[in-house]
Structure formats: structure tokens, C-alpha cells
Design a protein that fits this description.
The protein has 284 residues and is α/β, with parallel strands linked by helices. It has 11 helices and 8 strands. It has helices at residues 12-23, 37-45, 53-56, 71-84, 99-110, 148-154, 168-196, 200-210, 212-243, 249-267, 271-279, and strands at residues 4-7, 27-30, 49-50, 61-64, 90-93, 116-122, 138-142, 158-161. Strands 3-2-1-4-5-6-7-8 form an 8-stranded mixed beta sheet, with helices on both faces. Helix 4 (71-84) runs parallel beside helix 5, helix 7 (168-196) packs across helix 10 and helix 7 crosses helix 11.
Length: 284
């Protein structure tokens, strides 16, 4: 009998993971509650089946894959259905949230009698079969993993089980995202500052000459940053919370506000996006 895996929403990551699972023979469910027509189209293209909350919680596994600010609310929404379910799924929170937030989600889920695992996804959404896959999409799990890792691996996911409690997988994601998305913000901000002072092209030439790997990385990363900046705001706030009462937490509060600005720029005149396009030689 095919494994049934529910994914909370068919966003870019959720639908990519859903398509991979469906290609490997899993029955994949998702919720379209409050979702747009484009979300419904993504779900259909991925081979995902629209389902109500009662059907979602009847799956073998329930993967919460959402923007960070929706991670706790979806657990609270599903709690009544989870409590009423005669057979509980393994609930895995895969969102970019702090260990503190994931522990709050765990309390909601475990109060329903449902087993819970902490998960994090590192890498882009899985690509369609036959496409140039590029970077891998890896699921890290922490908590009482038992056979969950092997069962999900058999369904086609690249799973790494951490010998660590709930909170560890989220900590890994916070640190990884803090480095990659933090660098994207810092590089963009410094390039824009140079451009405002009339030395943007000089900085671009110097980076290309003396820091070619960094320059190439910015050229690959910044293009995809602007349309996703609105989703990264909450993640940066989660990283700030992850760092706690330390002075460096202010860095990520500032980066969150920077991504708010980039999101507004992308939705408006795109002046910053265009300036970076000039500096990164048309790569944005």
C-alpha cells in the first residue's frame, strides 16, 4: 500500500516536494483552504490531491511547509482534527522557525496525542524529473526520529536524521539561512550604497577581479532574492529570536527590515533591483 503524505500547502517548496513524492509512488494530499487559483494549479501539476483537514490528518506523515509566520497558526488550525483522528500522522514541522517557535508548535501538536518531529529543509525546491537538479534538497530531522527517516527516504526524500532533540533541526536551518540570506542582504546593501556614491561600477569591477567567487555568488543569488524578499522577512525575525538577548540579534532584525524594503521595491518601481542589475552586469 502506497504511503500517504500530507503537505500543508502547495507553495513553491511544498509543490516541489509533493511532485517528487508523487513521482516516487506516494499518495500526496494538500490543503487549498484560503489558497489562490495559482496554488490550485501548482497542486494539480504536482500530482497533489486537494483534501480537507480530516483527510490531511489521516495521512502517514503530515509535513508542514509554509512561510514561517504561518507555522504555528497551521498547527493550531489542525489541532482539533488531530485530536479527533483515530490514527495520528507523524507531524513534521519543516519551516524556517527558531527552536523556541518549534517548541511552541510541538506543544500544540503533542497535546493532541500526535507524534512530532522537528524538520528543516536546506536547498531549493526539488526540480522536475529530468531537469538539471543543481543543489540538493535535504530534509534534516531531529527528535524521536525512529523509522521516520527511512520511510521518508523510501518515498524519495533526501533525509538526514540528527541524533539530537527537537529544536536542533530548526537551529541548523536558522544558522544556515542566517549565513546565506544574511550575505545576500549585506552584499546588496553595500552594492547599493556604493552606487549612491557614484562608485558602484568601480566596486563591481573590483569584486569581479579580487573576489570572483563572491561576485559570482551574488550574481546567482540576488536575482531570485527580490521576488522572494517578502517571505524572508519573517525568517530573519525568527533568526533574531534564535540569537536571543545577544547584540548580534539586532543584525537580523535590521536584515528583516531590509527585506521588507526590498519587497516593497520589487512591488513598486524596482529602483534598487535595477541598480543591482547594472552593478551585477545584467544578472539580476
Amino acid at each position: 500500500m502506497a504511503i500517504t503524505i500530507a503537505i500543508t500547502a502547495p507553495g513553491n517548496m511544498g509543490s516541489g516536494v509533493g511532485a517528487l513524492l508523487a513521482r516516487n509512488g506516494a499518495r500526496v494530499l494538500t490543503s487549498l483552504q484560503g489558497r489562490s487559483a495559482s496554488s490550485a494549479a501548482r497542486a494539480q501539476a504536482a500530482g497533489m490531491i486537494a483534501a480537507g483537514d480530516e483527510e490531511l490528518v489521516a495521512a502517514d506523515f503530515l509535513l508542514s511547509i509554509l512561510p514561517p509566520k504561518e507555522a504555528l497558526p497551521i498547527a493550531e488550525r489542525l489541532a482539533p482534527a488531530l485530536r479527533a483522528a483515530p490514527r495520528k500522522p507523524v507531524y513534521i514541522d519543516c519551516n524556517a522557525v527558531s527552536p523556541e517557535t518549534v517548541l511552541a508548535i510541538e506543544r500544540v501538536v503533542k497535546d493532541t496525542g500526535t507524534p512530532f518531529l522537528d524538520g528543516s529543509i536546506i536547498g531549493p525546491p526539488p526540480k522536475a524529473e529530468g531537469a538539471n537538479t543543481g543543489a540538493a534538497t535535504t530534509f534534516y530531522l531531529s527528535g524521536n526520529v525512529e523509522d521516520a527517516a527511512s520511510r521518508l527516504a523510501s518515498a524519495g526524500l533526501d533525509v538526514m536524521a540528527l541524533d539530537a532533540p527537537v529544536g536542533a533541526a530548526s537551529a541548523l536551518k536558522m544558522s544556515y539561512g542566517g549565513i546565506t540570506k544574511g550575505l545576500a542582504a549585506l552584499g546588496s546593501v553595500m552594492c547599493l550604497a556604493a552606487d549612491r556614491y557614484g562608485v558602484g561600477q568601480v566596486l563591481s569591477d573590483e569584486l569581479a577581479a579580487s573576489q570572483p567567487q563572491l561576485f559570482a555568488w551574488l550574481g546567482r543569488t540576488v536575482p531570485g532574492m527580490f521576488p522572494k524578499a517578502y517571505r524572508w522577512v519573517a525568517e530573519m525575525d525568527e533568526i533574531s529570536a534564535y540569537l536571543g538577548e545577544r547584540p548580534e540579534s539586532d543584525i537580523y532584525s535590521g536584515i528583516a527590515r531590509t527585506y521588507e524594503h526590498f519587497a516593497a521595491d520589487w512591488a513598486g518601481e524596482q529602483s534598487d533591483a535595477k541598480a543591482l542589475a547594472r552593478m551585477l552586469r545584467g544578472n539580476v
